[in-house]
Each structure stands twice: as structure tokens, then as C-alpha cells.
Design brief:
The chain is an alpha/beta fold. The chain is built from 12 helices and 12 strands. The longest helix is centred in the C-terminal third of the chain and has 18 residues, at 298-315. It is elongated and about 90 Å long. GO terms for molecular function: DNA-binding transcription factor activity; transcription cis-regulatory region binding.
């Protein structure tokens, strides 16, 4: 059975002082006798006294806690963003409460309610792949919860947003494939409701158009971040009589599923099919062959999101939401051929 946590009442009774005296000593207030303060602090240490943060937050109407809600922890992207959030939040005196929704809309709703019940001062979030209605988020915003969105962004949600230049990153990736001699480039796409997916698709299409390549809708297949679907879609592409000679995947997990499927079919990467991902997940450099990928500055995404949220908390109703777009780079590895001198 858990023992009762000591309170300021216990300290006051043992030392025969008032509760207000104990409270001032614990806050290191200057208007208290030094000997009395030392006796209170020594006894608090001896009893392993911990302040009641809930009571404190009710008095301050502020918890100094930032919530971070992400769709999954399976891949390194979201943990790396959280590290960036923590760096900025902790330096500003905030604690971070983290929830992950396992790509479930219902769990996302439950986690958001838990954040509200814990009275977080603000929230940084990326929605799940199932999230196709947004009343739970909009309701929280109407109650005054500041929210900053990142990565999984939809137009229906208002607020500050942090994203990368998905369009330019996709354009560079597909142009790289063209420059290596690829002529039939397929796309394994993400959920259509996400701005990120649409921008990467548009970058893919415009890169093909810029080099006078036809747009073939039959080799643009939605994978929607569903585990196993990328392998299914890749198999469909490999079964075509005129199979693609390259695949551009919406993210690295999708690309790695495609890589496994390609190799299971006895084909060589990049000799038979070149492959490019997006996000540069840590394990992408260690698969065989190592994956060419678009690099996203994940830690910086978290830092920027945290700074935006802290600014909103500081400025209150005067804060004007803004969107910040970070650049990407392309890291070239052995899943694509060397660039040809002339295309």
C-alpha cells in the first residue's frame, strides 16, 4: 500500500509554524527568518516532500506543461521531432507530456481529452492516418487551447503549422531519377487528405512534366501509411507488362516495404529498379542497398513548433498563426544509379 505523501500541513505541524510560513520558505521568499527557512527546508528534504503541482496550477491557471500528440512511435521521425520540442520547452521551463495514438482516430480523441484534463498549456500535434473529421481538435481550440500542427497537416484545421518543402523535395527526388536515366517512374503515394501527400504528388508530377515525361495515372498508387500496403502496391507495379524502372515513395517506411518486395521478386536495386524515399529515417542508411532519400530536419521541426507555441502562449489573443516551411535536401545512396552526364 502506498504511503501518504507529506504535505505542507505536516511540515507546519511538526515545526509549529503557519502554513503560509512553510509556503514562503518553499518558494524561497526573502521575508522569512533564515533559521526558520532552513528548518523548513531540512524537514521537507527529510520527508521527501513534493509540491502539489495540480494545486499550484489551479492557483496560477497555468501548468507549465506542453502536450505533444503524435500518430505513432514505430518509426524514428516522430521521436526525433519530440526531442526538438523538448529541447526548446525544457529551456523555457516547460515540461512535456507525450501521447501517441497508434494511428487510431479514437485513441487520438482519448489522448486529446487526457491532455485537456491534465490542463496542458498548449499542444503540438500530428494527426493519425485515420483522422478524417476534426471536431475534437476544433472543440479544444474553441476552449482556448493553442495548437501547433506539424507533418500531418490538413487545410480544415486552423492554427500555426510547421512543414517542410514537400513539393520541392519530391521534385528533386524525381528529377534525380530522371538524371540517372530512369524513364518510367512510379509513385507510391500517401493519404490524399494530407497536404504533405498532395504536395509530394504534385512535385512528382511537375518534375515529370518539366522533362516532358507523360503522366501515367496507373502507376500512381495510394499506400496511405497502412502497413503491408506498399508491398501489395509494389507487387502490382512489378506485375505490369511494362513495369516501372524507378519508384518514388511518399516516405521511407513505404520505400523500405517496396525494397523488400522488389528483392523478393528476384530483382536488383538499382540495376532493375531504382528507389527513392522521403524522410531519411535512420535505418534507411543500413538497408541493402542503402536508400536514397529526401532529408527532413526533424529536430528543427520540433524546435520551430515549440517556439511557435511558446510565442502564442506569451502573446495570447494578439498572436497571429503562421506557417513555417523548412527546406529539404536529397541524400544520394546506392538505391539509385549515378547521374548521367547528359539526359
Amino acid at each position: 500500500m502506498r504511503s501518504k505523501q507529506p504535505t505542507i500541513w505536516d511540515i507546519a505541524i511538526k515545526l509549529n509554524v503557519s502554513i503560509s510560513t512553510v509556503s514562503r520558505a518553499l518558494r524561497n521568499a526573502p521575508d522569512i527568518n533564515p533559521d526558520t527557512k532552513k528548518a523548513i527546508l531540512d524537514l521537507a528534504h527529510e520527508l521527501d516532500y513534493q509540491p502539489n503541482t495540480i494545486a499550484t496550477s489551479l492557483r496560477k491557471n497555468k501548468t507549465d506543461i506542453i502536450g505533444v500528440l503524435v500518430p505513432e512511435f514505430v518509426h524514428a521521425y516522430f521521436p526525433n521531432v519530440i526531442l526538438g520540442v523538448q529541447e526548446v520547452a525544457n529551456a523555457a521551463g516547460y515540461k512535456v507530456m507525450i501521447g501517441q495514438s497508434n494511428e487510431s482516430l479514437e485513441i487520438e480523441k482519448h489522448n486529446l481529452q487526457a491532455m485537456l484534463s491534465s490542463r496542458v498549456d498548449g499542444l503540438i500535434m500530428a494527426i493519425t492516418r485515420e483522422t478524417n473529421e476534426y471536431e475534437h481538435i476544433q472543440s479544444a481550440q474553441r476552449k482556448g487551447l493553442p495548437v501547433v500542427f506539424f507533418n500531418r497537416i490538413v487545410d480544415e484545421l486552423q492554427g500555426s503549422k510547421v512543414l517542410v518543402d514537400d513539393y520541392r523535395g519530391a521534385f528533386r527526388a524525381v528529377e534525380h531519377l530522371i538524371q540517372t536515366g530512369c524513364r518510367r517512374i512510379a509513385h507510391l503515394a500517401g493519404p490524399e487528405n494530407l497536404t504533405m501527400s498532395r504536395n509530394r504528388l504534385n512535385g512528382y508530377i511537375d518534375a515529370l512534366k518539366a522533362h516532358a515525361f507523360p503522366i501515367d495515372e496507373t502507376i500512381i498508387l495510394p499506400c496511405d501509411f497502412v502497413e503491408g500496403k506498399a508491398r501489395f502496391c509494389t507487387q502490382q507495379l512489378l506485375n505490369l507488362p511494362d513495369r516501372p524502372d524507378a519508384l518514388f515513395a511518399v516516405n521511407d517506411p513505404t520505400a523500405i516495404e517496396a525494397l523488400v518486395c522488389i528483392q523478393e521478386n528476384g530483382l536488383s536495386i538499382p540495376d532493375d529498379i531504382s528507389l527513392v524515399g522521403f524522410s531519411n529515417a535512420p535505418h534507411s542508411a543500413f538497408v541493402s542497398p542503402p536508400l536514397t532519400s529526401v532529408v527532413q530536419p526533424t529536430n528543427e521541426i520540433g524546435r520551430v513548433a515549440a517556439r511557435l507555441l511558446l510565442r502564442q502562449l506569451a502573446e495570447g489573443p494578439d498572436f497571429v498563426p503562421e506557417t513555417q516551411t523548412l527546406d529539404t535536401t536529397l541524400v544520394i545512396r546506392k538505391s539509385t544509379q549515378p547521374v548521367l552526364k547528359a539526359v
